[in-house]
Fold these 3 entries.
Entry 1:
Amino acid sequence: MFLSRQKFLLACFILAFALVPCFAQIGIMQQPGSDIGAQFPGVSPQTGANAQQRITGSITGSVRTVANKAVGNARVEITALAQGQPVATAYTGDNGNFAVSALPPGDYELRVQSGVLEASERVQVNDGQTWVTLRMPAPSAQGGNANAPTVSVQQMRVPDKAASFLRKAQEALNKNRLEEASKNLSKALASYPQYAQALAMRGILDLQQGQAQQAADDANRAIQSDPNYGTGYLVMGAALNAQSKFQEALRSLSRAEVLVPNAWQGYFESSKALLRLGKFQESLQQINKAFTLADPSQHPEFHVIKGYAYMALHIYTPALTEFQAYLNQAPNGPYTGAVRNTAEKIRPLAAAAVAR
């Protein structure tokens, strides 16, 4: 039995501020039953004559630390996922950049290694250049988990009373008791008005209630209170996306990527913004990253974004596969009607591309 739309949206972002400082995604792509494609300029089914054969492509990338410093002399191994074996190897220059050419269209995994540190990224290669940035985790001086969240000075100043109210808000939110969560957040902020985590959580509730500007205001206060708290930038990016301020959203989400590189929500929000801006290949890269960081069976909306990005690139067979994946996972989901209609429109185009 599928959740109601409100519960579906909330179930998409169970919070874990104490362990992983990020929020889960609010479903703000569109209203149920509307034409998803209409909100993405240039994303629409094309005539069969436009279905193009891709011959070869290339990957141009950069390897950076979470502090955005270039990683030189890192080994980059490119694996074709269809064959499950490496097809190319490259090394980064002093500026952290690398390039690999003459790659057949398809899905690839890039794995970069520098000393004992590793990072990976999945990308879709078509004709032309595919751009990608890989982020290396910060080394741990104590030998612990390099990706473990850090506790900022601001968080260490939080009074126990405020922290207790935040925990109660978290527990209420996990149980979909929104009013109770809101009351506990108000108490937490009354005790400590600069509480970045409470402000960010309230921003998520704002988004849940369709109050995008109020969410942006709360996110801005969270960022001002703690400029190194990545969740504040994630909430800001989602709020700006909800207001169709896509370039501004990408700037905030770019900062979030540095602070919380393993938060899938940032890549998902970025993929939406890039899709709306007509940057389809880059949108694919971002949604592919979200796929590697979260279980797509728990987030069927991933397939919607990926399907429309493929469709905009006139790659109809993979687009149809993504749309069908969404329909299989969410037969009564909030976007089912629009996705089914779009899938039927591109089905003959996919068949024509296969026939060639």
Entry 2:
Amino acid sequence: MATTKVIPDVLDLNEATSESGLKIPSGTELNRPTAAAGQIRNNTNETSEGSASCEEYYNGTSWQKINNVTPPPPAFGFKIMLYSGNSSTQAITGVGFKPDWVWIKERDKTENHNLYDTSRGVLKFITSNSTNAENTGPQRLQSFDSDGFTLGSDNEINDSGSIYVAWCWKANGGTTESNTNGGITSTVQASEGFSIVRWTGTGSTSNTVGHGLASVPELIITKRLDGANDWYTWHKDLNSGTNSADYFLKLNSSDGETLNSGSPPSVWAGTEPTSTVFSVGSTLSGSSEEYIAYCFHSVTGKIATGAYVGDGNSSGPTISTGFEPDYLLVHRLDTGDGWRILDSARSTSNPRNDYLDANLTAAEGTSVFSNVDFNSTDFQIMNLGSTYNNSGGRYMYFAIKE
């Protein structure tokens, strides 16, 4: 059977300076087939990139230029895995994709949270409950696999007889790109609504970093890798959404929102994120220092983040997400409290009340003061504890659907 070979410089759909690119016959309107999704045509009536014509594809609604069309990001993926340790090598499978960010916590013992990602590579971990720099352990996470990940024997992630939870996120399968949108060139891998960003500080008091997302981030979690530093965190609803970049949170601390004095402020440089970059001050741009950020924005049916005000009632506020959450992170903004994590794998029915705190090494707890219902399009606070529902208290939330 004959084959067709495409030779470079002969077929070039982005031909910019001449008509040497191979053309798809244009025909006439009467001879063209009815437009169908995925169909490609040559449009000789519209110029593109200096050429007298351009190629187009039909997306099911309208014709779109192939020239300079930005491909959509990979679909967002999230999965919660529960497993028991074996103090040996162990492959955790069933995630359904290659995870790019794996956050592990031993549930029945006091141990560190262990965070791994494909941008930094295997064996390298950071801990959300401490200011410690990135560390490397020979028996830590050994590989990121097509359907999960493989563990070494370290007791913090794989102790025999202990039980664990792993929250797994998908970015771009470990494939990173250089991002030059900001004043600091960053290394980014992104999926729909989630990106992992690495950069090296310049020593400047105000600079920008490209985040790789398709729209403005709503939650940014950062950590210095090569030295001790807090987990500086920004959320769009800091200070009730007014001048939010003048404030910060710390994921490793129970503190509430803190006003960042200085000119410019030393964390976010007093500048809100945009659709392409977020700003960093001297705290996140020390000369030659290494940093990482996990960035999110809401995605219909998959990710929702925002804020609510507590009412102090046992049947408290209902917060619309547009989906039934499988993961929920809540933190009090005005006075501070724990970074409380609930999920549908550890608590399989309402009320969801098996909790872990991202800022603590404490084992999993269960309490009526942690009751939250996960409903088809929302979650409802079903307790009057200060962690979730103090009257007049302001809270941020981050909800995800598997």
Entry 3:
Amino acid sequence: MQVIRKTQDPRLKEEIMHISKKNGRTATLALGMAFALGMAGCTNSGEAGSSATTDTGKKAQAQSQVTSGDGRTYSKLGVPKVELKGAKIGFSQSEPDSAAFRAAETKSIKDAAKAAGATAVVTNANSELPKQISDIQELINQKVDILVVAPVNSDGLTPALEAAHKAKIPVITIDRKVTDTFCKDYVSFLGSDFKVQGQRAADALAKQTNSKANVAVLLGPSGNNVTDGRRDGFVNQVKAKYPNIKIVAQQTANASRDEGQKVTAQLLQTHPEINAVYAFNDESGLGAMAAIQEAGKKPGSDVKIVSIDGTRNAVQAIVDGKYNGVIESNPRFGDLVFETLKQFYDGKAIAENIIIKDGEYTPENAKSTLGQAF
């Protein structure tokens, strides 16, 4: 197996073999105010920390400095201090840049590295967990100073993260949080509050349907906290606030336009009463839009659609009257990553979670904010 031949660490070889035998070609994607807690040792002990927020379509930016004097700094983690200017940053991307979110995310990291005078070394796991494990090991072998990882899954990266820890290379995860040990296996998670995204999607759908609808839910891939949060946030918000919104079906569409179209077509046949769709991401939502049209119905009116991401195609569909709302999930992490690293190497304690505030695209603002979509 090619991935195994390229990997030097025996434990990684064993882990890749185990994952490959178990899963085959693993291909899963994995408003609140920003918060960050100061840590004593590896535990949270108060509310001092770093916060971050972003407006619709804009870069995520930290609002306050970390001031806790008893948190996990680079010295307490036992990693050497690095000057960002001239540093080598390894970025392990999880999925192909053919997805608009990933393309914007990768560009953001590259642009921020260039602005900081650093060199970005980028790999892409193509949605395969074994390949991401191998990619991270290869970046370690190239002696990168820092690792930024967009995980394929929340689970499964333990051997690679442990290898980084052994090599004294700090790891920041973005977009998707891992289940590994904070402080030891990663320095911080930068990303959205996925439950809040689901809650806001429920509110947006309720507004577009006058709080009465029969909804099909297109879920994301299993095995990551993004899918779980967006599902639970939506479902629980509907149960708590909207008694006349009925969830008639929930089915995985794997964040794919093709699968979103196929699954929606099937659901419209088995549940002709469906008049609304909540989609895990824009791609599956756009697939649902195509299926609704093929079924002889009008997306945006006969069947309302709300999804999460903020891609230009979905926002344009709102402008065209074929879509009803998009909760933004901002992929532009680059500046925030480097701001966090600067604080880290300035000796400040870095929070376990740096949560960004995402914007929203609506029928009222879609035309004026279209240029901010990715």
